[in-house]
Design goal:
The complex is a heterodimer of chains A (181) and B (246). Chain A has helices spanning 3-11, 18-37, 40-56, 67-84, 114-125, 128-137, 144-151, 155-176. Chain A has 181 residues and is mostly helical. Chain A folds into 2 domains: 1-86, Rna Polymerase Sigma Factor, Chain: A, CATH 1.10.1740; 94-181, Orthogonal Bundle (Arc Repressor Mutant, subunit A), CATH 1.10.10. Chain B has 246 residues and is mainly alpha-helical. In chain B, helix 5 (85-98) packs across helix 8 and helix 12 (198-210) packs parallel to helix 14 (231-242). The chains are: A mainly alpha (181), B mainly alpha (246). Chains A and B meet through helix 2, helix 3, helix 5, helix 6 and helix 8 of A and helix 1, helix 3, helix 4 and helix 6 of B.
């Protein structure tokens, strides 16, 4: 059963069906927030807030409309509201909580890979809007048309913004790698 | 195409949206321009790295908190008793751990990893274990509308015989998916006189009423006039009987 059908059931009062949506999407939402905030606890709170809003605003879901853009719009709003409570331009140069930093000799973890660490740090040196844009642009559930609507811009402008953010990321990443941009 | 054109075409290439003609022109240019080649390869490489970042797992408390929230929402939004979510949360957690992510995989893909029919696997789950596990099995079944008659048969069996009221209520909810089948409707109507719990009776009356089940007329009337029937159930039956075209 498609997400849109399940959400239509939730809207019609079968709130328990939100469990299906949760199982399908909580992991990607969690990782989206984790890469934006760098904090596991805060990311779980934000995922919870998304599902709370899906419930609270379920009447605003138009049955038959694509579900993913609606959910990611809510996720984006949740993150923006979260940013209002944070220090401006807080740098997340350190690794997110719970991700090994390669120094403790514990389990093998992909994030220990030096390049992956640099990518993480490079992402976190972008401003939050660009970081969010890059993450959403790689979200397979969102077509560029959906994302453009989300960002309130044209598809053409969106592509240019993604390209610019990626170029900036590439420069920072190259610096961290010790090479020339 | 020249180097200045790269700025125009690269955004489309990165979006996977470069027209075929432009792609050919870009390819020809890249073959003769190391600088543009490096710029393009660098961007594509970075995109691939972003896509390959491993997914981190949240703690188990996220799932628990979600189901608590759902329980509260159901409590506020419905006058129906909340029998389902608390034990289901535990059962789902057990299934996630013991079943190696079977629950999550099922919910995402619609079928178990090993290719066995959905129904058979969960029918077995419904017949064994604790009430919580039986309810988790019912919940799994309710994700799809299995054509396997063993599934509806098993649900009807739970409705008729399970000692746990919560399991019987969960079975009623799941049977909404199967009510279009005449044989299931017959069995639902036949199950009504067997039910002694007012909560199960109410759920079943609602189900039969929602199905506009003509076959249930006699059973409903009998339930409403039986001496031991609770006033609330009798009222609900009368309300359902008054609804056309039942």
């Amino acid at each position: 059963m498609e997400d849109a059908e399940v959400m239509a059931q939730v809207r019609a009062g079968r709130v328990e069906r939100l469990a299906v949506i949760f199982e399908r999407h909580h992991l990607h939402l969690f990782n989206f927030f984790l890469r934006l905030t760098g904090r596991r606890g805060a990311s779980e709170d934000l995922v919870q807030e998304v599902f709370l809003r899906l419930l609270r605003y379920r009447a605003s879901y138009r049955p038959g409309a694509p579900f993913a853009p609606w959910m990611w719009r809510i996720a984006r709003n949740v993150h923006h509201d979260h940013l209002q409570t944070q220090r401006p331009h807080q740098l997340l140069d350190e690794l997110p909580e719970g991700i090994p930093d390669g120094q403790d000799g514990a389990d093998v973890h992909v994030m220990r890979d030096q390049e992956a660490l640099h990518l993480w740090r490079a992402m976190n040196r972008l401003d939050p809007a660009k970081r969010e844009l890059l993450l959403l642009s790689r979200n397979s559930e969102l077509a560029y048309q959906d994302l453009a609507r989300l960002m309130a811009c044209s598809v053409g402008a969106l592509k240019v913004q993604v390209h610019r953010a990626l170029k900036e990321l590439k420069t920072v990443f190259a610096e961290l790698q010790g090479g020339m941009p | 195409m020249n180097c200045a054109d790269l700025e125009k075409h690269l955004p489309n290439l990165l979006a996977g949206d470069l027209a075929e003609g432009d792609r050919m022109s870009l390819q020809i240019h890249l073959e003769s321009c190391p600088a543009c080649q490096e710029e393009t390869a660098g961007c594509l490489d970075l995109l691939a790295r972003l896509d390959l970042q491993p997914l981190e797992q949240p703690s188990s408390s996220l799932r628990e908190r979600f189901f608590w929230m759902l329980e509260e929402a159901a409590e506020v939004g419905s006058s129906r008793p909340i029998w389902f979510w608390r034990p289901l949360t535990q059962a789902a957690a057990v299934l996630m751990l013991v079943g190696g992510g079977f629950l999550g995989g099922y919910l995402v893909r619609g079928e178990p990893d090993n290719g066995r029919p959905i129904g058979n696997r969960n029918v077995a789950l419904m017949q064994d274990g604790t009430p919580s596990l039986r309810m988790a099995g019912i919940m799994l079944l309710s994700q799809g509308d299995s054509e396997d008659p063993a599934v509806s048969e098993s649900l009807l069996g739970l409705l008729d015989r399970d000692p746990s009221e919560s399991v019987r209520l969960a079975a009623v909810d799941a049977l909404y998916l199967y009510g279009r089948r005449p044989q299931v409707r017959d069995r639902l109507a036949a199950s009504l006189p067997k039910q002694t719990s007012p909560r199960v009776q109410l759920a079943l009356v609602d189900l039969l009423g929602g199905l506009r089940e003509q076959r249930a007329l006699e059973a409903l009337r009998a339930l409403a006039s039986a001496p031991g029937t609770s006033p609330e159930v009798a009222r609900r039956v009368r309300a359902r009987l008054a609804e056309p075209p039942l």
